[in-house]
Amino acid sequence: MYASEQCGGAPCSAELQAADSQGASQDPSAQTAFRIAEKRYQLHTEQVFKQRGGRRVSKGFVVRQTDFSDVLDPQPGGLLPPGVTHQGVPSGMPPTAAAFTFAAHPGLLLVRGALQPELQRQLIMDAFTRFCEPPNHTNHTRAYSAGLPGIWAAAQRGLRLQPAAAAAAQPASQQQAKIGAGRAADVVACAAGCPPVDTAGSCPAPAASSEGSTPAGAAAAAALQLPLWSRDGSGPPAAGLLAKLRWATLGPPYDWTQRLYLRNVPHTPLPPALHQLAVALAGLAAQLANSSDAAAPGGGPASCGGQPAAAAAAGSCANDSPLLQFCPDAALVNFYYEGDTLNGHIDDAEPSLAQSLVSLSLGCDAVFLMGGPTRDTPPTPLLLRGGDAVVLSGPARRCYHGVPRVLADAGRPQAAASLAASNGSCGSGGGSGSATTGCEAQGGEEDAFAPFARHMQRCRINISIRDTR
Ligand SMILES: O=C(O)CCC(=O)C(=O)O
Q1: Which of 340, 342, 400 gets mutated to test ligand 1 (max ligand atoms within 8 A of its CB)?
Q2: DSSP state for residue 208 in the 8-state scheme
Q3: What residue segments make up the domains of the chain, in order of their start?
Q4: Where would a tag sit more exposed on the chain, N or C end, judged by fewer CB atoms within 10 A?
Q5: Residues 428, 432, 438, 439: is their CA dihedral positive or negative?
Q6: Ligand 1 pocket check: which of 399, 401, 406, 460 to mutate, most ligand atoms within 8 Å of Cβ?
Q7: For residue 325, what pLDDT is reported?
Q8: Which residues line ligand 1 (CB under 6 A)?
Q9: H or E element: which one contains 109?
Q10: How much is the pTM?
């Protein structure tokens, strides 16, 4: 499901509501146990006042203190809360990785440190420079159907959108209407400058591109020939558009109107590294479900996708049983900033919920709520850090979950600083406005990751990887 900008605690868009498998009877604003927990951890600001000349005047807004003491933060070697079990990880995983299962949530697997720092850095850079590039869909595709290629570089250089190029792109309403009417091939295809296209393991190849095959496609492709960004353009600044980037899709994009994955629109396949990692993690979840009584009640291995971790590490989708074949081919990349939330939901768009969903965290910490099959089950709050992975398999795959809070610098300064340190990248440098970022190499030159490290001090990226076949 897509992340949303904070809208006073209510769902911000039709997409959020449509994503709820339970419909109106499960109104996300109803006072369920899940909703109460969401409100408890969400960022709340309060207006403060002072008296001046006998009048009450606003002093501005302050963040209300949140009590995070109930948020589980299992660590290897640490004292574990009842019902949380530290599990071994296979040799293919980073040596610092630590896996945890939860008696209250069969099928939920948390792997702390599942992503090596180098992979974290690569995925962060890819998220801003490749994953959000056309032909992949983003939340900007509605307004700019040709996409916003080069948005990260343009934002770094202080450029603005060229009005001519922006105007040549299809307006949102037309684009969506076409997709809704089943004319998905009208979506603009990838033009020059697109990221290289990878092949994803042994999964089926994506549908061929239909670049410029229709008037709409041709117009949008023509728009890409114009310089999209310029210093003196009168369109919106790239930095503002980047700040509003909330999601991007890898593999077939999901159409909320039709409630199906669009296989025939151009897209880049799921990168092999993500495919392999997801298969390995789902394999570990399946193995643990097989071996642990704690993970079995109420579900067990039969409802849990995956394969032995050793086979999974090889990146193969092959499996004797079609029921157990986990072959991820799509991902949703969510970008969160402080105040953004992901309301409680069940991911039910995929044809088989017997297959796991593998979710990777990058950047700032977040509070993740793991609930039950209805919103009435009180959820367990878990702290997710950059580099962690969560697998929803078996019964947990059909359970409510969400992200009520992202802990950027202002919310939890130590967490943001340790994120940068654990990424092996830059220190926080004292926050924005600091003269030094901690990212400079010895000779004074910034490394390529430095601008991303600065951005990630207030950003969280989640990549949720799915099998949509
Ligand atoms: O951001 C997260 O950790 C959860 C993402 C998620 O639940 C989703 O994409 O459906």
Answers
A1: 342
A2: P
A3: 14-44+80-119+273-466, 140-236
A4: C
A5: positive
A6: 401
A7: 86
A8: 1, 332, 334, 342, 347, 359, 361, 368, 384, 401, 403, 462, 464
A9: strand 108-112
A10: 0.77
